[in-house]
Amino acid sequence: MPFNNHRLTDSVLLEILALSKDATAIYTSADLVIEMANDAMLSFWGRSRDIVGMPLTEAVPELNTQEFIGLLKTVWETMETYVAVDTPAELLINGKLQTAYFDFSYRAIKDADGNMLCILHTAQDVTERYLAKKLADEAKRVREELMFELQQTNRELTALNTVFLEKNDELNSTNEEVASLNEEYHSANEQLNNANNELSSLNEEYIAINEELNAINEELQSANNELADTRGKLQGLFTELKLSEQRLANIYEKAPIGIAVLTGPNHVIEQANDTIINIWGSRREDVLDKPHAIARPFVHNQGIGNWLDEVLVTKQSKINHEVMLQMPTLDGQTRTAIVNSTYQPIFDNDGNVSGILVILEDITETYIARKHTEWAQVQFRMAIDSAGMGTWSADPNSGRVTLSLRASEIMGLPKNEEITIAALLNMVDHDHRKIVADALDNGIKNSKPFDLEFPVNNPMSKERVWLRVTGKMFYVTPDYPASFSGILVDITEQKQDEIRKNDFIAMVSHELKTPLTSIKAYTQMLNSRLQKAGDEFSTNALRKTNLQIDKMNKMISGFLDISRLDSGKILLSKEEFDLNDLLYEVSGDVLLISPNHDIVFEPAAGRIIVNADRDKIGQVVTNLLNNAVKYADHSKSIFISTYQSEGKVTVSVKDEGRGIQPEDVQKLFERFYRVSNHKTSSVSGFGIGLYLSAEIISRHNGKIWVESEPDVGSTFYFEIPLT
Ligand code: ADP
């Protein structure tokens, strides 16, 4: 066969293959060495013919990351052909890696012995076909989806149509109904027209009524406003009520007074505040919600149980004052308690007693304190009675005076008779009445203590009784005077003794003065003789004798003054005079006797006219100046000044002497008081000068006082009213 004779050589075969339009390559060996690749294959790979003879993995390295190399190796090993369609491959196309789609086959070519000879790789670029197919597939899918949706929409439309038909039917039947209603409406309309006419007339009536209603409405509105106002107020009241309720609850809890509520016939203790629990000496849990008889059996049987029952029956409150009870204490003892208690019935809406409000006050301590005061008063009264003293008490408002039995007895008044201050003052001896009245007035108005000795005329015995009366203002509160009260003692006997003594002193003084006056006359006669004889020693001795006689004369005069003072015989003989003139005069007299001192006089300008006893005021100033000389031995200057203000004149006498200790200042004006120390003991005196001065000033309704500093000096002041 010719065919057999013209067998093609391998190279011819390869050339023919190279001409094939299908991309073709042949790989010999397991390393896939490219034996041959035609132009079409080289163009797929984007390579030139140089790569023939290189392993595929080196010639087209981008294939290494794709599945082809693995597939080729498998074909070599398994010697089984592999065919694939529409396979994507990443290839260098125009210098760029691009994806193209191929139908390809790796054909295992074996020799006659069945050994692997080569792999014939043929491939066709089916990218266009593939993409066209893909597009067609996509179009189909989209169409199918649209189809599906269309069907769906169709189905919904059909369903809607059915509904629409149903609704249409309904509408038709409604339409029919409307038509029949329309007819009814027409006839109704006619009726309505008729009715309308009626309505028009009614409307007029309505308008009239409406106007009335408007007026009523306005009234209602204002009533409404008032109501709103009242509601607001009520709201406020309600809030206050709430508050006061809270306060009440608070007060109840914290009240210093015991409060409890008992309910029912057995007096069950429903509520009890802390104070009552304390007074009861119980524990809250032991008494609460228990009948009184069980909770507090010990006290219940002391009469309280009966009182509680009594309140239930009589529906009246029971109030007890100062009840003495034996009360248990928490430590199991008992104590005597004094209590004030109130058992108040609590009524329900039907007027029945549903419970009892107990209010309990423990006054044990106050009671004991009061008893102590009462006992003290009794003792005090006993002491006063046994000393023969009387007590008196005047109401400053009404002027009524209450006297104790003894006081009435001393005054010679009937027992328990009410008497007024004015009536009592009328009983006072005429010469003393003004002093007593003034002191009493001063005591009541200015709370000045009252302590005076004066005679009264006993209306029973018609005798003169000397009294020492003390008094003091007592206050309930600083603004509210309760009484002006004090003690009254009969000092007639003592006074008579004193009067006798004073009479004696007066008599003795008088008797002493007579010989002294004679002695003075003789010394004067002697003096003129001795002066003529020129006996200097005797003249000097006689001058000193004369000074001593003057001193003695003054002392005797002082005693006489005191005796007169006590027996009320110092009477003022008042006249109008210029006080400055008197002070000049007296200063001159003092300087005559004490020429070593300076008297600096600083009088107030103008004349100082007073209505007073000139001699007595002169006596006071002389005494103050003499004291300044006596007790300011080391200083020379004495300052005397006058000062006028508010209807009075103040005189001051100042020295720069030894001064007076504070403890002595108060007592200087007492009778016979002298400061006792080594300095004063060298100065003669009886301590009556300042006492007399104070008495004289007081009888002029003035006052006298001293300001002094030890070792610096003293200033004595007195003030008397101007005319
Ligand atoms: P007498 O001077 O006779 O003792 P007075 O009644 O005049 O009595 O004085 C009472 C006392 O007051 C005196 O003893 C004296 O201690 C004191 N006294 C009075 N005036 C002064 C004075 N100016 N300075 C110091 N002490 C005085």
From TrEMBL:
**BP terms from Gene Ontology:** osmosensory signaling via phosphorelay pathway
The entry's localization annotation reads:
Membrane
Enumerate the catalysed reactions: ATP + protein L-histidine = ADP + protein N-phospho-L-histidine
Q: What is its EC number?
A: 2.7.13.3
InterPro entries on file? BphY/WalK/GraS-like (IPR050351), HATPase_C_sf (IPR036890), HATPase_dom (IPR003594), His_kinase_dom (IPR005467), HisK_dim/P_dom (IPR003661), HisK_dim/P_sf (IPR036097), PAS (IPR000014), PAS-assoc_C (IPR000700)
**Which key words tag this protein in UniProt?**
ATP-binding, Coiled coil, Kinase, Membrane, Nucleotide-binding, Phosphoprotein, Transferase, Transmembrane, Transmembrane helix, Two-component regulatory system
Chain ranges of the Histidine kinase domain? 507-723
Question: Molecular function (GO) terms listed?
Answer: ATP binding; phosphorelay response regulator activity; phosphorelay sensor kinase activity; protein kinase activator activity
The keyword Phosphoprotein is assigned to this record: yes
Topological relation to the membrane, as annotated: Multi-pass membrane protein
**From which residue to which does any coiled coil extend?**
132-240
Query: Can you say what this protein is called?
Result: histidine kinase
The species this protein was found in = Mucilaginibacter pallidiroseus
Which lineage? Bacteria, Pseudomonadati, Bacteroidota, Sphingobacteriia, Sphingobacteriales
